[in-house]
Amino acid sequence: MFREPIAEIAELFHVYQSGLVFHALCAVARLEIPDRLADGPRPVSDLAAEVAADPDALRRVLRLLDGHEIVVHHRETDRVWLTDRGELLRRDHPMSVWATFATLGISDVAHRLVDTVRTGRPAVPGVLGTGFWEYLADRPDQQAVFSQAMAEQARLLSLPCVPLLDWPDGGTVVDVGGGSGVLLAAVLDAGPGLKGILLDQPQVLPRAVDRFRERGLADRSETRPHDLFAPVPAGDVYLLSRVLHDWDDDEVVRILGAVAGGASPGARLRIFEDLLPSSGPLAATQAWSDVVMMVLYPGARERTLGQYRALLERAGWVFGRTVAGPPGMHVIEASRSAGAR
Length: 341
Known about the structure:
Blueprint: H1 5-30, H2 33-36, E1 42-43, H3 44-51, H4 55-66, E2 71-74, E3 79-82, H5 84-87, H6 98-102, H7 106-109, H8 113-119, H9 124-128, H10 132-137, H11 140-157, E4 171-176, H12 182-190, E5 194-200, H13 205-214, E6 221-225, E7 237-241, H14 249-262, E8 268-273, E9 275-276, H15 284-296, E10 303-304, H16 305-314, E11 318-324, E12 330-335
Helix pairs in contact: 1-4, 3-4
């Protein structure tokens, strides 16, 4: 269908402008502006004073977000308040996505995408001076925000898969790289006879301990410091939720192999990841996520089911089936064969 060039130019400029809106959202999230609007409209000058921001600069950013229905800025009184959409950026909202916008991530390094395209390597070291994981490990405050962002995304993508799966009446579920315990807590709720072990970096574990205690799961759960490439404890079901897309193929095989090494014959593995189509176009969100992986982590990528099956086979797992979750999530099931050692 023919379209006038001016219409195409308008679409291109919409894309051009949307990038700045994303950065504006990240800025107000990091300044915790939505939290300060929890009780209703406030003068921009008061907000600026509380967060040590320039009033004029903050006002102009809020006006930009007004045009995208995040806040309402009343010019005559210079007061601002949250829309329903903006409420989701409050940290205390039950469906908060504050950390997703406040965390260190793609907003900090995407300006170096051209370097990644030229070299095939992530942009992170050129911006942060070191790898992404190493940078976070030295900065506990930023690690905490990143962990919360992962919990927000697990709530939206992984949790809806839990009731779609059958869980054993008893045994041990081991969540490898389980973060703050969002997924494992839901699994333990779904299987009252199950016990759980969450494995992750030491600095992440206190948040998981708190979550299990708050949910009344302390007596059925434990946390252990863990390196993804190290052997895992014995278990009946293993979970890897949105872990493998952060790593290159050889490292994925090492992670899967480490899990296989600790698994008993007949143990099951459940991998929570998006699956790219084997042919045809990618969904826009899939293409976006794939580029994010490329920019942030060496060799990281989204994969097709065929690619995951090949990696599972290399690591000694037998593919079973896939279960479709919400858009952007599938569960890949695999098992250790009865003759595995």
